[in-house]
Structures are given as structure tokens and as C-alpha cells.
């Protein structure tokens, strides 16, 4: 008997690739959209009908009618942030209680987790990793240390007792830092948000997802951050605290590897990065500034200016390999419209050697080897058919397809839902 499979959409760079828009565009083909990892450090931006919205924890299918949205067990949840987000969504579209369910196995970010995050980052000084200070790292540490508090615990009669025990442990850890903090006000908000969260169904998401697959329900698994921020295979230690690759779908939703179908890998036509860490193609010149301004490259969650650079084919091929990508989705192509020359890194030079595979240290000390392409100098934003694209842009796309061995399924030529060319 043929097994039903779910499809996956995830980022192939350092996050901020445009996953929110893509999920929103793909959702009409799916009945369930499920987030499988990460926390409120995610910022999935959607633009439609002249409105823009940034999602942090809620799956990006929430604005589509008839779509069930699942926050999976691999996600970490701050009840305050989640309820604020839900409140903003409900102002736009009305109640979403029936459209959103939450895994009992998802871990909770406590107010003290946020303090631990801030204290740890402050203590690192110049070695800061660029944490968003949302408490995500300390929450995943408690998860793997088997101390965590989970959504299912909210319904237990011992919730307050378990909360107090974990808070006490955190106070002990915070005593090691020269760090002033006060959680009184946030804790009140947190407890109120936990109560409010009870109006949503807490489910055994692994059973829910697998039963839906058995029934042939189309499911899209949505990742957060990007492949090069994966805790195992990213530019460690400048990474996030979860597995952002396709493999994370299995542990983050509770499905077997054989249940993974199409893997849609999203990448920008250039590169960006927020926070610290290696970035081989980073630009410090006018081109870098131009990319940032035209592309509005400021963090959706943090507002921080993003570092910008040319497309890195070495890193992209690595991400395609690690994720088993079946189809590519190219974002922000229109940002490159005004450039005379566009560059792509095809290799790295390090200590006289040429590297064509992504190195262990993420390319901390390499010099990129570039291939140059003529710019297309044509506004892409009004185009809606591949046939209408300028030849120079088509050649840029063909080069990426040849190098990665993957076809580019979707091309985004602007932020709005409609500024999308679906090729097949």
C-alpha cells in the first residue's frame, strides 16, 4: 500500500529567505500546515491585500480559509508572545480557535529562560553569538537536560509546582552572573497568557499528523530560521538551538523519514545574515548597502540591519544536499534589477587551496571565488510569466539549476502574494 507523504518548506540560507510568503502561496494546495521547530525568534512576513503581517510562532497558513494549523512538538512557545500574536491575527480575521492546535509536547519558554538568555549573551562580551534574547536556547537546554515544562503540563494539577521548581533552578543559575533582572511583571503576563492559551486544543500532534496522512490529507511542514543555522550542520556556534533541516521534521512532528515527500528549498537571489558568524560573500561596499536598502533587509523579529552579500553557491549546494531538496524557490529576484553586474561565489580560496565544498567552520577565513553575470536591468516586479523574463535573468536561473541539480519551481518578484511566478 502506498504511503501518503507530507511536503516540507524550509530556508536554505541563514533564515529570512521569505518562508512566510511561500507557505501562504502554497497553502491552497494543503489542508494542514505544521511548524516543526524554532520559537518566537522566527519572523515569517506575509503581504496580501495591501496589509503586511509578521508571524513568529503561528504557522503561515493561518490566513487561508479551510486550513488547519499545527504548532508541533519541536517548537518552543512563549505564551505571552503567542497570545499577543493570536490577538493581532484575530483582529484581522476573527477567531482562530478552530484553525490552530498546539502539541502537548511543545516546550514552554519561561520568563526566567529569557533572563538566562540575556545574562549568558551579556557575559560573552565580544564572543556574542547574536541571540534574539527570546529565551529559546535555554529552553532547548532544559528540554535536552530533561527539566523542561511542556504545554501538556498546563493541564496537570502540578503545573504551578513544576513551574516553581524550574524557576528556582533558574534563579540558582542566574546567581552565577553579574546581571540584574526582575521578572515580576512579565511573570504576571505569562501566567495570564497560559490561562488564555487553554481556549486552544492541546493535542498529541504526532498522532494527529500521522492519522491525517493515513487519510490522505495534504500536509505542509514549515521550518523556521535557515539550514545554515542548524545546530548540527550550520555555522556553529553561530547557529540556532534546533535542527532546521528536513531531518528536523521527523523529530519536530513525529513522522517517519519515509513520510517526507517534496522538499521545497527557499533561497534569496543573494544572501543575508543577521547577527554574528561567518558570511563568506558579505559585502561592505555600495553594492552591500544597495542590497540592504532595496531589499528592506532589516530583521522581521529584531529590526536589526541584516548583513548582505552575493549568492553563495558553495553554501547553497551544501544546503540542497543536506535537505534532499526536490524543488527550489527563488525569492527577492527583483532586488537585483538595477545591478550592472551580479556575482555568485562558485568556490572559496583558503591558504592557497580552492574549496568547492562547505567547510567545517562555515568559511570563517575564506576568500570567495566569483563568477560574474550581466545584470538584466529590467523591472521584474510586474512580470507574471517565465516567458516574459529577460534572457539575462533566465541565464542566472539556469546556472543555479545546473549547479544545484534542482529546478526552480517558484520565482518571487515582489513582496505581495500576487508577485509570484509558478513555473510548474
Describe the structure.
The structure is a single chain. By secondary structure, the protein is an alpha/beta fold. The chain has 11 helices and 20 strands. The two termini are 28 Å apart. The model has no long low-confidence stretch (mean pLDDT 93).
How are the secondary structure elements laid out?
Blueprint: E1 6-11, H1 19-26, E2 32-35, E3 44-48, E4 51-55, E5 68-71, E6 76-77, H2 79-93, E7 100-103, E8 107-108, H3 111-124, H4 136-144, H5 159-174, H6 184-197, E9 201-203, H7 205-214, E10 219-222, H8 247-253, E11 260-268, E12 271-273, H9 286-294, E13 307-309, E14 311-312, H10 313-323, E15 327-331, E16 341-350, E17 353-355, E18 367-374, H11 391-404, E19 407-412, E20 420-422
Parallel strand pairs: 1-10, 1-11, 2-5, 2-10, 5-7, 6-8, 7-9, 11-15, 14-16, 15-19
Antiparallel strand pairs: 3-4, 12-13, 16-17, 16-18, 19-20
Helix pairs in contact: 2-6, 3-4, 3-5
